[in-house]
Amino acid sequence: MRGTRLLLAAPLVWLMLACSGNQHALDTRGPVAAKVATLFWVMAGVGSLIFVIVMALLWWGLIRKAPDGGARPLRYVHSRNLVLLSGVVIPLVILFFFTLGSASVERDVGKPLPAGTLTIEVIGHQWWWEIHYLDWRGKRHATTANEMVLPVGRPVRLLLQSADVIHSFWVPQLAGKTDLIPGKTNVSWVQADKPGVFRGQCAEFCGLQHAHMGLMAEAVSPEMFEAWLARQRAPAALLTDPALIRGQQVFLAAQCMMCHTIRGTSAVAQLGPDLTHIGSRRMIAAATLPNTRGHLAAWILKAQDIKPGNFMPNNHTLDGESLNALLDYLQSLQ
Question: Which of 27, 271, 286, 310 could form a disulfide with 259 if both were Cys (CB 3.0 to 4.6 A apart)?
Answer without folding.
Answer: 271
